[in-house]
Fold each of these.
Amino acid sequence: MSYLSIDIGGTKTLIACMSDKGRLSRRDKFSTPTGLRDFLNTLFTHLKQFHNVSPECIVVAIPGVVKNNIPESFGNRPSWHNPPIENVIKKLFSCPVYFENDASLGAVYESKFYSGRTIYLTFSTGIGGGIAEKTKLIEPNSSNFEPGHRFYTYEGQKLEWEDIASCKALEAHYGVIATSIRGKAKYQDIAARICLGLVDIIKDERPDTIVIGGPLALRFRHYSRFLKQLLKAELSDTKLPRIRPAKSPKEAVTHGMHLYAKEKSRGV
């Protein structure tokens, strides 16, 4: 029994075939083209390498909005509205195809390690998020959860949270990749930027655990104490959730796709 996953990212697309036990048997990746037609042609070419696989189902992760199993929009490809990705897949495979937001799939995986409601936040080009409990997405909360697009006043400007605290925003501000940022003052600044959005998320969703994913998970120990201090000051009358770095910052979505595929194929 095997499952096929397609993780469509803004920079690269990863195709992986995994066994029922999660063993990776084959994988392939390619740079995600900007144009939709180029992407669909490239996807078809790479999927042909898996023609001898008979997956139970296929899960496609997208960095955007999924409604009724239809990928409505891509956050980093605004012109890709309702792209016919399933049509391309169906030319090669006859199994069911499921679409889900990539951060929601990250939440599926990371939630397996904690009790209660887990919110997974991935800080990368933007800020995505998902809400799950013990590998089950909490709906409609997770589908409607777009944390990066919440607005805040920051340094006199009204900006989306991801324009303040995403890795892209940090890299534009500091001139280096997010994992290379060093220094106490910079860690305090990162904590303050993250805290802006977390305060509202904690008030609105009452999570038991918040998991930080993406590149910022790799620097978590450097800014976490400043973040916790800020949250305590802002939410003095609220029970704070656990704040943890992702168990698998680079592979959370892939692992989540595998768990999601198994549940879907079993009718869970």
Amino acid sequence: MDYSETQTNQTALCTLSEVKKSFAKGARGVLNGVSLSIYGGEILGIRGKNGAGKSTLIELLADITSPDAGERTYGEGARGKIAYVPQELSLYESMTGLQNLAFWGIAVGLPAKTIRTRSRWLLETLDLSDRGRDRVDTYSGGMKRRLHLASALMKTPALLLLDEPTVGADAESIKTILALLENLKRQGCGIVLISHLSEDLSRVCDRVVTLEDGRIGA
């Protein structure tokens, strides 16, 4: 696939132009002039050392925070179809896997029938079908990572943003998660993946950029 040609024939889901961000007046910027576009049907990898600004960048893409300077624009309809998977797990451990998915389905306004259908599909796809009725506090770390991703996918996204989705997961869970990302990409979803694991990035990403001191490195 000629990636440059694909870009010219598509409208970006989200574009950052010379975006800057800091969290205290006079403080050193977390992001210092980042320009980036994300397109449907691609996986963009982001790597960098701790403190490079990766999580801040993905929060900007997710519309959780706003830039101090520069411009952020979304493609038509994309802003309302963003799924964000933070590094911190957002699960209710005293509830079952199915109850967690139902909770997030209700939160995004899905009808009951869709919640049931979507939950079953996600549990099957992420190899959790036999544990859906078990409490989450009985899950392994890798299983929790898979359910955490599933909860964000209860509503089909146009843009999926993932901050270290495989951290602490076992090899089989990582394989399952990356396979789902490739499947979503084939369906036209644009995906941004932050990972410190070069193997994850090289395995599934169409592009990889490096953040260095709040800027896109060479």
Amino acid sequence: MIVLSPAQARAWEEKSLREGARMKDLMRQAVSGALREIQPLLPARGHALFLVGPGHNGDDAVLLAWEMRELGWEVELLLSRTPGKRVHPDPRVKAKVWKKALVWPAKPEGFLGATGPRLVVDGLLGLGAVPPPRPPETAILNWIARERRPTDLFVALDLPTGLHPSEGHAPGAVFSADITVALGSVKSGCLRDQALPHVGRLHGVPVDFGTPPPKSNADFLLPSGAVRLIRPRPANLHKHSAGIVHLWTGSTTYPGAALLASEGALRSGAGYVRLFTDRPLTTAIPGRLPELLLSPHSEGTAPDLPPFQNQATALVVGPGLPPSEALADFLARLLPNSTVPIVLDAGALDLVASHPEWLETAKAPVILTPHAGELARLLGQKVTERAEAARVWLDRHPHTILVAKGPHTLVASADHPLSHNGSGNPAQATAGTGDVLAGLIGGLLAAGYPPFDAARLAAVWHGLAADLAASGGGPSVLATDLIRHLPAAWRILSGQADWTAA
């Protein structure tokens, strides 16, 4: 899904209308998609309050309210301005809707008195508004913030009211959403890290405008778009041609990383996965992962370089490894000698931060997978916006690929637009999930995926598995739960199943 500035998004819609598209049809696409995105997160029915502004964002909210009333929800509309003779673009929404709606400062008594599930949908202001909001919208935002209950679900349509649509800051009152549903395109301000507390989880709804989109320097990879990256597995595939991953992961301090990264690589579809790790860790592994090949070495030492490279089509180094002299010496020798892609994580990243010149010696692609703290250490400076940090990093190291982990994990390459991941949720904020991601990337690289595609596909697959796990586990999801949902997530990505069947 494309990422656009507000001006680009407006121009695209206006061009579509000039070329014959009808507003009601575009709106129906957007609202049907929004309902599809939020419905799995809703209880069977409850009480919904729709905050309605004077523009098309408000019209979207009213049409969604109409759809939800059909599903049995108790619905109230709260308008920020008097409707006058307002006519909705969709003729299914009759004039009486405006007459029955409340107009601020009237209060929705049904919503306030509801004891069951409550939903609040923000349709006050759209991408044409520059914050801070005007007094009526500001008053509504301040009031609903005071009335918010911990169990309420707050949803913003397209972008939260009060958030700057391109810069992502909120200089005044703002709607702090649990979920923002981007309609047609993702507005660039919603992907700024400073916007995350107000955007919440960002979902995307593509809309067919009937005209080509403008050029963009970023995208938002939805699970539905991942099928374009997936390569078919030929009928004559065998274990060697499926890819061979070698990993040096895990230590007595972080023993689980060895298993998690290895299983990520195995679940990627790689034909062989061989783990190089400390000898004491290998005793229990055959019972846990009998498919895994083992090459143990003495604790505190590094693997021998020739066996580590021999026959491998991708390498993973770092998960669960503390920085050490042995690891430093290994990396200094591996990077200039490897002819296959290398994934660096955790302890390997800390050492590269101290020795960035090693990256300039690499002959093969190097994929780095830092979380926020590791990214700051790599750059040697505080990181406030990952997109800006990624551009700084690529200016210094244009031959690497950066996977900046976090909400909507960012994949950055000098040869491609920035790619934000469109799957995932806070359940991924637990120990071990990054190890799984490193293994997945390694496995896709080993299978022959181009490095940028391997990183993007692994991120969206990883995030979708976390979404499936969280749908039945909430905050109790573990990295091992995520792994168990990788096969079902792949079926969705490849178009073999939808969410409900997975």
